[in-house]
């Protein structure tokens, strides 16, 4: 259902417009100044904004600067002093029409009848975004797997709202990219996005970094310093590794979330802030609460909308998609034409990537550097994955009395695991054909068939593979 925002400091005008709009079956929200209007924009994106030119804290046309031109929102200016100049200024500011007080209600209805065009534009944007998602791109994020599609759904729902978000995922899964995507899809996109790693700041300085300090407030404070909450006002603040924040500071953070007010270190003067908070952790937040690392009340304030980011090993073919994207970036940056040979693609798909996307990106960069040594711009990227775990379990112990069939099974599966799941290499070591290896794996119930065998990585690898 279309939604209309009415911004006017005259309550009578607001009520008259709301009655007409409501009579057409549309929903409405009202605001008496720019500040209230911006709050309403965060709560729900309207299809049309009726805004008075003269408001207590500015001009209604300033709201147009807060709106993404691609959103399809239409701005109608209201004025009590009509002139050619005001009409031209309104149109220059992006308004589609303007109304003169006392308002002609027939003109209001005519404007509302044009609403389907805005709806069509939003539908087109939605279709385009859907196409990009199917291609594996969503904001700054990349991946087309079912696990990532679920993440995209959640981000798409929460981004336009003011709700706090808790991102949970292993290190390297892209929590900061997810936070940036939430920011870019929100009404705060034109304001600051600041990222803070709570574990990387000294406990003695973290309060000053968060809230700022006054000159002379402590030794070394030779000037006034604005903290993250002050600098991110109107925008988004991303607190990574929130469980590493000192507990005593968590109390002050909770107060900011509840009141929207904070104080710089060294002063008792309160400062108002309007910040959307996104927190992240690579730990189980409930376990962190149980261990006293995270306050329960703060956890509940931050965990309004939790999103779990999947590890790379659960994202299937996203590994190849991400690796190729990283390689394309390097090729464009350095003017090269590197490519992955088939054996490398098999290894990329088979390796479990304990360091997730960050580890994959680092590998592609190392491989690109190694490939550059031969001076051939079109040379293939070499296979050189260094596993994070040391070589272990390189021997298979088969007890006396084990049947030949069972011994054969243990040897084949262990060899495949040591080869990182690369079947061509395992077959070569075992001295059997690739077809024989596939047949044996089907017998063991390890795979459903040859056609999809290379698309699934093993659950873990215990040794190194360097082919």
UniProtKB/TrEMBL annotation:
<keyword id="KW-0804">Transcription</keyword>
<dbReference type="Pfam" id="PF00158">
    <property type="entry name" value="Sigma54_activat"/>
</dbReference>
<feature type="domain" description="Sigma-54 factor interaction">
    <location>
        <begin position="141"/>
        <end position="369"/>
    </location>
</feature>
<dbReference type="InterPro" id="IPR002197">
    <property type="entry name" value="HTH_Fis"/>
</dbReference>
<dbReference type="InterPro" id="IPR011006">
    <property type="entry name" value="CheY-like_superfamily"/>
</dbReference>
<feature type="region of interest" description="Disordered">
    <location>
        <begin position="448"/>
        <end position="467"/>
    </location>
</feature>
<keyword id="KW-0805">Transcription regulation</keyword>
<keyword id="KW-0067">ATP-binding</keyword>
<dbReference type="InterPro" id="IPR058031">
    <property type="entry name" value="AAA_lid_NorR"/>
</dbReference>
<feature type="modified residue" description="4-aspartylphosphate">
    <location>
        <position position="52"/>
    </location>
</feature>
<dbReference type="InterPro" id="IPR025943">
    <property type="entry name" value="Sigma_54_int_dom_ATP-bd_2"/>
</dbReference>
<dbReference type="Pfam" id="PF00072">
    <property type="entry name" value="Response_reg"/>
</dbReference>
<keyword id="KW-0238">DNA-binding</keyword>
<dbReference type="InterPro" id="IPR003593">
    <property type="entry name" value="AAA+_ATPase"/>
</dbReference>
<feature type="compositionally biased region" description="Basic and acidic residues">
    <location>
        <begin position="448"/>
        <end position="458"/>
    </location>
</feature>
<dbReference type="Pfam" id="PF02954">
    <property type="entry name" value="HTH_8"/>
</dbReference>
<feature type="domain" description="Response regulatory">
    <location>
        <begin position="3"/>
        <end position="116"/>
    </location>
</feature>
<dbReference type="Pfam" id="PF25601">
    <property type="entry name" value="AAA_lid_14"/>
</dbReference>
<protein>
    <submittedName>
        <fullName>Sigma-54-dependent transcriptional regulator</fullName>
    </submittedName>
</protein>
<dbReference type="InterPro" id="IPR009057">
    <property type="entry name" value="Homeodomain-like_sf"/>
</dbReference>
<dbReference type="InterPro" id="IPR027417">
    <property type="entry name" value="P-loop_NTPase"/>
</dbReference>
<keyword id="KW-0597">Phosphoprotein</keyword>
<dbReference type="InterPro" id="IPR002078">
    <property type="entry name" value="Sigma_54_int"/>
</dbReference>
<keyword id="KW-0547">Nucleotide-binding</keyword>
<dbReference type="InterPro" id="IPR025944">
    <property type="entry name" value="Sigma_54_int_dom_CS"/>
</dbReference>
<dbReference type="InterPro" id="IPR001789">
    <property type="entry name" value="Sig_transdc_resp-reg_receiver"/>
</dbReference>
């Amino acid at each position: 259902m279309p939604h209309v925002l009415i911004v006017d400091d005259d309550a009578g005008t607001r009520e008259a417009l709301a009655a007409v709009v409501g009579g057409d079956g549309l929903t409405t929200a009202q605001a008496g100044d720019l500040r209230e209007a911006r709050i309403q924009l965060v709560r729900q994106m309207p299809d049309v904004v009726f805004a008075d030119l003269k408001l207590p804290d500015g001009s209604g046309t300033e709201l147009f600067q807060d709106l993404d031109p691609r959103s399809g929102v239409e701005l109608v200016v209201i004025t009590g002093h009509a002139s050619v100049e005001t009409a031209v200024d309104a149109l220059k500011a992006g308004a589609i029409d303007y109304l003169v007080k006392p308002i002609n209600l027939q003109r209001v209805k005519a404007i509302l009848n044009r609403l389907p065009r805005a709806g069509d534009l939003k539908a087109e944007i939605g279709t385009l975004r859907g196409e990009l998602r199917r291609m594996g791109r969503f904001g700054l994020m990349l991946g087309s797997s079912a696990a990532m599609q679920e993440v995209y759904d959640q981000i798409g729902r929460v981004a336009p709202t003011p709700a706090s978000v808790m991102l949970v995922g292993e290190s390297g899964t892209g929590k900061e990219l997810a936070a940036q995507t939430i920011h870019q899809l929100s009404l705060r996109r034109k304001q600051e996005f600041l990222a803070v790693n709570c574990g990387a700041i000294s406990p003695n300085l973290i309060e000053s970094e968060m809230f700022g300090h006054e000159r002379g407030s402590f030794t070394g404070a030779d000037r006034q310093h604005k903290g993250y909450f002050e600098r991110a006002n109107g925008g988004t603040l991303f607190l990574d590794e929130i469980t590493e924040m000192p507990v005593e500071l968590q109390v002050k953070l909770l107060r900011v979330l509840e009141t929207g007010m904070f104080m710089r270190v060294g002063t008792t003067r309160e400062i108002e802030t309007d910040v959307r908070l996104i927190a992240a952790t690579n730990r189980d937040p409930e376990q962190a609460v149980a261990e006293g690392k995270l306050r329960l009340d703060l956890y509940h304030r931050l965990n309004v909308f939790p999103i779990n980011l999947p590890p790379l090993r659960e994202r299937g073919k996203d590994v190849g998609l991400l690796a190729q994207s990283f390689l394309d970036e390097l090729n464009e940056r350095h003017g090269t034409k590197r490519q992955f040979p088939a054996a490398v693609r098999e290894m990329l798909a088979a390796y479990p990537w304990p360091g997730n996307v960050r580890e994959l990106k680092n590998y592609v960069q190392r491989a690109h550097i190694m490939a550059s040594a031969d001076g051939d711009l079109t040379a293939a990227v070499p296979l050189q994955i260094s596993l994070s775990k040391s070589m272990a379990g390189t021997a298979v112990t088969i007890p006396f009395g084990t049947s030949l069939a069972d011994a054969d099974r243990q040897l084949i599966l262990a060899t495949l695991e040591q080869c990182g799941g690369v079947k061509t290499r395992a077959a070569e070591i075992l001295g059997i054909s690739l077809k024989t290896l596939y047949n044996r794996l089907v017998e063991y119930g390890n795979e459903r068939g040859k056609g999809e065998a290379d698309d699934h990585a093993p659950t873990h690898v215990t040794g190194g593979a360097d082919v």
